[in-house]
Write a structure and sequence with these properties.
- This protein is mainly alpha-helical.
- About 50% of the residues lie in helices and about 10% in strands.
- It has a domain of about 80 residues.
- The protein contains four helices and five strands; from the N terminus they run E-H-H-E-E-H-H-E-E.
- A three-stranded antiparallel β-sheet has the order 1-3-2.
- A hairpin with a 4-residue loop joins strand 2 and strand 3.
- It starts with 10 loop residues before the first strand and ends in an 11-residue tail after the last strand.
């Protein structure tokens, strides 16, 4: 009976070579140190050792009739590892997406509060302008007061020397504090 054909030039990492041969990674290292895997090469940036299948067969770590099955097993294990990695990455991505959604919701709440403050300030400015010259009409293109709750009576704060006075509608007048 003839042995099944295989790619004799196929390279396996030390881990995959050990898995294919059914030995430990240390056994692969010992065989390599003794010169029994003479065609092993270092590849990639990490300079990881890769063992040709032909060296595994020549050193009798792998029987020729087991090569195809061993390579299939290594490929299946590698594929399962990739699937496991993809599943972990997917779970990590879902967690990150949830965190980003929560952050976006918080930022939207801040934006909504800022919009409300801007609307209130716009109404106050309009009231101040109206109070300064009740007979004047607003300039063309300037929108009228925004709709919303009445900000209440305007009061002018006494102000702090050197600072512009503040105007309040609902709260007692307080000096402005720049940070």
């Amino acid at each position: 009976m003839t042995a099944p054909e295989y790619d004799a030039k196929a390279l396996l990492s030390r881990v995959d070579a050990a898995r294919a041969a059914g030995v430990s990674r240390d056994t692969i290292k010992r065989y390599q140190a003794r010169g029994l895997l003479p065609n092993a090469v270092q590849t990639g940036l990490a300079r990881e050792w890769h063992i040709p299948v032909s060296d595994l067969v020549a050193s009798e770590l792998l029987a020729p009739d087991r090569v195809a099955g061993a390579l299939d097993e290594v490929a299946g294990t590698r594929e399962q590892a990739e699937l496991d990695h993809a599943a972990r990455a997917g779970a990590d991505a879902r967690v990150e997406i949830a965190a980003l959604r929560a952050r976006a919701a918080g930022l939207q709440a801040l934006l909504d509060r800022a919009d409300a403050q801007i609307a209130t300030q716009s109404r106050l400015i309009d009231r101040l302008l109206d109070a300064a010259d009740p007979t004047a009409t607003p300039p063309q293109g300037r929108p009228g007061p925004a709709a919303g709750p009445d900000p209440g009576p305007l009061r002018r704060a006494s102000g702090v020397p050197g600072e512009a006075p503040t105007v309040s509608c609902d709260q007692p007048a307080q000096p402005r504090r720049d940070q």
